[in-house]
Design brief:
alpha+beta; three-stranded antiparallel sheet; 3 strands; 16% strand
């Protein structure tokens, strides 16, 4: 399958996932689609530029030291806007 078509299919799947789950962390998206977080950011950037997705940054972690909520991917939350 050509890369452009494959990426288009993934973008559509990301849209459906965000619409279903409302607000999702970068880490959850990357794990669900089995994609590196940086690659997922690039795909989300396309939806952000079109005004369909908004990104929110969590300002503080839970205060514990396990590192699960403070690994960076849990600090970025994405939501479908329409």
């Amino acid at each position: 399958m050509p890369l452009v078509k494959e990426q288009s299919m993934i973008l559509s799947e990301i849209k459906q996932y965000l619409m279903k789950h409302k607000r999702v962390t970068l880490g959850d998206l990357a794990r669900h689609f089995d994609i590196e977080p940086e690659a997922m950011k690039g795909m989300l950037g396309q939806w952000i530029r079109k005004g369909k997705v908004i990104k929110s940054d969590v300002q503080a972690g839970c205060g514990k030291t396990c590192g699960k909520c403070c690994d960076g991917t849990a600090m970025e939350i994405y939501a479908w806007t329409h």
